[in-house]
Design a protein that fits this description.
With 201 residues, the chain is of the alpha+beta class. The chain is built from eight helices and five strands, in the order H-E-E-H-H-H-H-H-H-E-H-E-E. A three-stranded antiparallel β-sheet has the order 2-1-3. Helix 1 runs antiparallel to helix 2, helix 1 packs antiparallel against helix 8 and helix 2 runs antiparallel to helix 3. The longest helix has 27 residues. It is rod-shaped, with a radius of gyration of 25 Å.
Length: 201
C-alpha cells in the first residue's frame, strides 16, 4: 500500500507538471538588427508544438495509475509501471530534443517574421533563441515519471518475501494465508493482503 500510494503521488505530480508545461513558453526568438531595428519577437508555447505530445502521453499514465486502485493484482502493477517508465522516457526525450534543437523548437517562427535570418542577414538562430521554462518543466515531468515508475517496479518486484522461519525449540507461528493475486503470505485472520491490498479468502 505505501508503494502504491507513493507511486500515485509521483505520477500525479509528473502529470501536473506536464499540464503546466504545455501552457508555458518553450522558446522565444527576439531579433534586433542595428540597421533595421527590431524585426520582431516570436514566442512558442508548449501547446503550439511538442508540448501537446508530452501532455497527451502523460495523461494516460495518470489514468493507468488510477486503474491500479481497482485492480490490485501484481501483474497489473508491474505492467503499468513498465509502460509508464517508457512514457516518462519519451516525454523527457521530447523535451531534450526541443532544448538542443532550436529549429524544431521554433517551428515556423521565421515564416512569421517574414525573413530567412540565416540566408538574408547571416544571423545564427541559436544566438538569438531563449529557451522557455516550459521545456525544463516538461523534462522534469518526464524524469519524475520515468524514475518513479522504475523505482516502483523494482520495489514491488524485488520486495522480500515473508518466510516462516523458526528456531529449534520455538513455537511455530500461526499459519499464513497466501494471496490469490500476488501470492504474498499474510498472517492468519488478516482480511487484506499486506502487499497488494486484495481481499483474502
Amino acid at each position: 500500500m505505501p508503494i502504491r500510494l507513493a507511486y500515485t503521488i509521483s505520477v500525479a505530480l509528473a502529470c501536473g507538471l506536464a499540464i503546466v508545461a504545455a501552457f508555458l513558453p518553450w522558446t522565444s526568438l527576439n531579433v534586433e538588427v542595428p540597421i533595421f531595428g527590431s524585426i520582431g519577437t516570436v514566442t512558442r508555447y508548449g501547446y503550439e508544438g511538442d508540448g501537446v505530445i508530452t501532455l497527451l502521453l502523460a495523461l494516460p499514465a495518470a489514468g493507468f495509475v488510477a486503474y491500479l486502485w481497482f485492480d490490485r493484482g501484481a501483474t497489473a502493477f508491474r505492467l503499468v509501471t513498465l509502460f509508464n517508465s517508457s512514457v516518462g522516457a519519451v516525454v523527457l526525450a521530447t523535451a531534450l530534443v526541443n532544448l538542443f534543437d532550436s529549429q524544431r523548437a521554433l517551428g515556423n517562427a521565421q515564416q512569421e517574421l517574414g525573413v530567412d535570418l540565416n540566408a538574408f542577414l547571416g544571423i545564427d538562430l541559436d544566438s538569438l533563441m531563449e529557451t522557455g521554462e516550459g521545456v525544463y518543466v516538461s523534462a522534469a515531468a518526464g524524469a519524475i515519471l520515468a524514475v518513479a515508475s522504475i523505482l516502483a517496479f523494482s520495489a514491488h518486484r524485488f520486495a522480500p518475501a515473508v518466510h516462516d522461519v523458526t528456531k529449534a525449540g520455538e513455537e511455530r507461528p500461526e499459519q499464513t494465508l497466501a494471496c490469490n493475486g500476488c501470492g504474498t503470505p499474510s498472517p492468519s485472520g488478516a482480511n487484506y493482503c499486506l502487499n497488494c491490498g486484495r481481499t483474502l479468502p
